[in-house]
Design goal:
homodimer; eight-stranded antiparallel β-sheet; six-stranded antiparallel β-sheet; 13 helices
């Protein structure tokens, strides 16, 4: 590291990047005290701070070991009015990443302990033209510069854009509209186009504000945070550093790539019949995902699940026999669980009796209203409750033959819940990580990792190392930028830039409300996009009868079969990408700038992406469009469907249904595989736009 | 005053009310430093603070003169971390009101001057069940307790309720939807049900937050504020104290009450024809108000005015002869002016040449976009510009024979404007006061006060003492609670509780946008409400052709004639009320609690009011309703139309069109006058609901 002190100015740099730039009137650090109110309505939060005090630490003294041009560690003593003093030790870890640890200071003369400061502000120097990415899974914006991002695990929202009528309706009905920053999976981490990652180790609410022209302003609530910064020469190097610290996802079971995962419901016979219909139409199927394996209920929101995590023998008779039979046909069976317990079920009674439930202030089990009914939550801070829940998963799900499940929710811990260990306000953001860990350990301790998979929508720092797969949550079944098909691309890209590289979405979206219903065209375009991700999975949506489904007509079935065949054809390449993610933290779905670093143009491209190093995907994201213009990076690109070769720059390609704009690099080692895609799939007969 | 010091606690009380309650962890005062961004779009503001420092002044020392139970003045020395110290001198003025003046303190050891603190927070102790009123003209809520009110002069907004579709549309199109607190006329003053007024002398942005259960939290931006608190035994006494300090409105010209003021447009002949039609139908007319006397333009928003403040001889040929002719018939002629100048006009050229215009940072005249066209602003901080503007009003308007005018706008001073004297950020809220003063002095210095009247929508502290009449601005032409007919009642009541007691509204509302058009029934109900205020004035709205007008059909004309007759019949009573307002600050339109102080029920009643001491008005504010239930205070009340007598409590009365629920006190000295109303008006022939 380099250290420069000049009058009241202090600069700390590492590998040529200025990481700290302090001056008295623009202090690196401020501390404060505040108390927040959190108002939760069905997973949507209104958060407000009452700030009692804010102290700018205007004076910064630096004590370094080593030469000023090559210091190995720096002690920064930051002080402000009245002798408020905080120490920050800046050092390098074994990977050469910078670690900043805040601690009490012997010099402190304020009489206020460091623990009393529960508001922290850090200025991170920024540069003109700099772009920033990450902050977890961001659905609206890939490049976060110019905007402010509160980071709090929550429902994603319905519409997510205060200028759309759908958001207005959702806000008016339930305060559920969300906004550009609301997400199931925030993370206090960003990657700068200056080629460094910046991560705050905290579990409190935080705000990453990238609007200021000369500094990123980071606000953190709770106990003293620590900060990590990893500098490298390339984005790939930065991600490798970030994931070396945060952990990486393991490789996926081999069967995962063998076709689509059909989201089906309705009982053994219904599932079997729909499965047959799909396979007869040529759909490659790897798995059936039946979320109602444990029963269902009808609510005003739609058809919902029972949430008592046992096989429903009435709805799924002979499931124990059907599962091995399907398995013999090469089809896995997947189920569903979440971190709630239905209060009508026997598991709730058992957990309640054993004291395994999160409680309210009156000491009773905390009943949280989800969409339209209340449910209780297992207290994931209680080791006995966790052990009980893991055994439940192993006994009721793995032993039954489930090869995986959706591990839903994780966003709803109320900040006033009373827990076995710890304060809910500080644990709220960690809850999805605890929930991921339960699932991971249930699988791993049973020796099934690499064979059984679970997928989650909620997440936070460190949940990436437990989860085996993320899905994008509940998109609207529409074309909207902030909550429809287009939003699944920035969500995958930003999560990848946060160190979590395995991601997919519900084909066709989920949320079916008001006038929003899934159209045939939307389903088909979404399937095309999904074919060029790691995983194709359908969801019927919350109101299946209002939505177009994969078997809506013969044309849809044919198109879906074709996309499933394309996807399966890519298996060796996808496996290679998943291995890269597992070994180096390189996400499967990547922003184009990851491999074309010197062109700022790509920082703002979020309607196209790289599937690994060699495939560029520019899906059709608009209705009634059968051609797409796209800029290609400087390279030789071959159009997947026509074989036409391009050498970068603006191109326009036909994009009828069944032929989403996809290009592969001429120099790819997988060139033959990509060429084979054209021959392995049957030619589309008749699609819209032809 | 009483002073109690107990450990770290300090209490200052006056006449039995605790005005200051300090303890270390809930300090009376905090100071801070911040810099704000103000984003203005067509008079709608987005305001955001960047807070650099906040210092709670946790220690409070008191030095008193006199005995602790009867001190005449107290010096409070408030100090916080690092020796930050502010002095506050608490004393009584000649009326016995408490004055708190903040000043630099010799004890200050911080090295930061008092002037550097531009953020101030004051805690005002509150009581359970306490209600608060005022904060200027509040359209959504009469009782402000439980809500937070930013106070900044601005457009009122279209819809003003984020849950209504109309607000959503306005927000989406122009960011113009507003919210429950947006108002043309805020004022940092409230009246508590504890019977005191609390006023902050400041011109900066402020926030009055009444949500906390044990304190009102007041945040003030800018130079050190001073505070005044007037305690009395009754609400009337409190208002008398408040208006003794703030100033009161003069009595109105005698002709004002002689009928409706017809808002007409279109030229001399059109106005004359419509006037004849009204009078032939029996409408009592006091004045014609022709806002287009100075010309007009057609914009996407509707028909708008030219804004070059001279008689338009093309549109109004022979106006100089028509005015005295109308006058002979007992009809005054009123015009229109605002604080902008059309950039197409000769007055703009003249003001520009003389340097009388507010400038932008480049030194050019600041062009502000209003609805759809830009205009310049006369610099009201320049004494020469003010003198020029006053002469303009006298020469072009009074000399022409105008008996009054709408003095429009006052909300649009951009915070980055460069002015002759002072900073725009600090003058923004004062702008309407400066604008009111120009109009007042133009009239008064010409010797026409009491004969010529002007009416304004924008206001702030101290504009009440200059303005001769307030109107409620631009309501939507609908029934909505926050921006339609119902909103004009809380607006009059809250303004009255802020010390400004003369108020009326556009009959039928103004804003005609999207699908919102004025219906016949709305016009009629609005006219009924207006008949029981100080002044009846119509406005055609911004899209006259989309709105129902007073002469829309014979039934409307008949109903309107009837209401004008009722209004004129009330003239002696209204004159008495205006005199009371002028002498004691008792508003003409009063909340019911003003005379029924011991029943908290009335604190939240904003759909009915007292017109002076003796008349209770409960207008019909909903569509298709012909009966109204209303609670009456304990008193003997006589129903105006039926003569039926009630003795308080819940009553239900028929309320067909033409007979809005109105009651008078049996013991009123004006009883005979009220009885005469029944006979002077012709009986309605056929109205809706009969």
């Amino acid at each position: 590291m380099h250290l420069r002190v000049n009058g009241d100015q202090v600069v700390v740099a590492h590998r040529g990047r200025v990481l700290i730039r302090h001056q008295a009137d623009k202090p690196w650090l401020c501390v404060g005290r505040g108390s927040a109110t959190y108002d939760m309505h069905k997973g949507n939060f209104t958060i407000e701070d009452s700030l009692a005090e804010k102290v700018p630490l205007s004076k910064l003294e630096a004590y370094a070991e080593g030469l000023s041009d090559e210091v190995t560690s720096v002690r920064l003593v930051a002080s402000g009015r009245g002798g408020v003093t905080v120490c920050a030790d800046v050092s390098l870890d074994r990977h050469g990443d910078v670690v900043v640890v805040f601690s009490p200071c012997p010099q402190d003369a304020s009489g206020t302990s460091v623990e009393a400061w529960n508001r922290w502000w850090i200025r991170v120097p920024s540069e003109p033209g700099e772009a920033v990415f990450g902050c977890g899974e961001q659905f609206s914006h890939l490049n976060l510069r110019g905007r402010r991002f509160p980071l709090w695990v929550s429902e994603q929202g319905v519409g997510r854009n205060k200028k759309t009528y759908e958001t207005f309706l959702a806000d008016t009905h339930e305060g559920a509209g969300g906004d550009y920053y609301t997400t199931y999976f925030p993370q206090p981490t960003f990657v700068s186009s200056q080629k460094y990652y910046f991560h705050v180790e905290t579990s409190g609410y935080s705000v990453f504000d990238f609007r200021d022209k000369d500094a990123h302003q980071i606000e953190i609530w709770g106990a003293p945070p620590s900060v990590r910064i990893g500098v490298d020469e390339t984005f790939a190097g930065v991600l490798e550093r970030l994931t070396a610290y945060m952990g990486r996802q393991p490789e996926l079971p081999e069967w995962v790539y063998d076709g689509v995962w059909l989201g089906l419901q309705g009982g053994t016979d219904v599932v079997d019949a729909k499965l047959r219909r799909a396979r007869n139409a040529g759909v490659q199927v790897a798995a059936v995902w039946a979320q109602d394996w444990q029963g269902k209920r009808i609510t005003p929101f739609g058809k919902q699940l029972m949430w008592n995590w046992r096989w429903d023998r009435n709805l799924y008779p002979n499931l124990d026999k059907a599962i091995p039979e399907w398995r013999r046909q090469g089809i896995r069976f997947l189920g569903y669980i979440n971190c709630f317990l239905a209060i009508e079920g026997d598991l709730y009674e058992e957990a309640k009796k054993k004291g395994y439930l999160a409680r309210n202030r009156e000491g009773h089990p905390y009943h949280v209203v989800i969409t339209s009914f209340p449910a209780a939550m297992v207290d994931l801070t209680n080791p006995n409750a966790v052990a009980w829940l893991k055994r439940l998963i192993q006994r009721e799900m793995i032993d039954l033959g489930l090869s995986g499940w959706m591990a839903d929710f994780g966003e709803y811990l109320p900040t006033d819940a009373v827990l076995y260990n710890g304060r809910a306000e500080e644990l709220h953001n960690q809850w999805p990580t605890l929930w991921a860990r339960v699932n991971r350990e249930a699988v791993e301790e049973y020796g099934r990792l690499g064979r059984v998979i679970f997928f989650m929508r909620a997440g936070y720092s460190h949940s990436g190392k437990y989860t085996t797969m993320v899905w994008a949550g509940d998109q609207n079944v529409d074309w909207s930028r902030d909550d429809g098909l287009p939003s699944v691309i920035p969500s995958a890209l930003s999560l990848g830039m946060s160190g979590v590289g395995l991601h997919h979405s519900d084909i066709g979206g989920y949320t079916t409300l008001f006038h929003i219903k899934r159209s045939k065209e939307l389903f088909m375009r979404w399937a095309e996009q999904a074919a060029f991700t790691v995983l194709m999975r359908t969801h019927e949506g919350n109101r299946p009868d209002d939505n177009w489904q994969f078997d809506g007509d013969e044309e849809t079935l044919r198109h879906f079969a074709r996309m499933s065949q394309v996807h399966v054809a890519l298996k060796p390449y996808l496996q290679h990408l998943v291995r890269e993610n597992s070994q180096r933290g390189m996400p499967v779905v990547r922003p184009i700038f990851l491999h074309y670093e010197n062109e700022p143009y790509w920082y703002d491209v979020q309607d196209a992406y790289l599937l690994g190093r060699d495939v560029l995907v520019a899906p059709v994201l608009q209705e009634q469009v059968v051609e797409r213009k796209i800029r290609l990076p400087q390279d030789e690109w071959i159009h997947l469907w026509s074989g036409h070769s391009y050498h970068g720059g603006e191109v326009a390609v036909a994009a009828p249904l069944g032929e989403p704009p996809v290009f592969y690099r001429a120099s790819s080692p997988y060139k033959e595989l990509f060429e084979s895609v054209r021959s392995v799939v049957s030619h589309p007969k008749k699609f819209l736009g032809r």
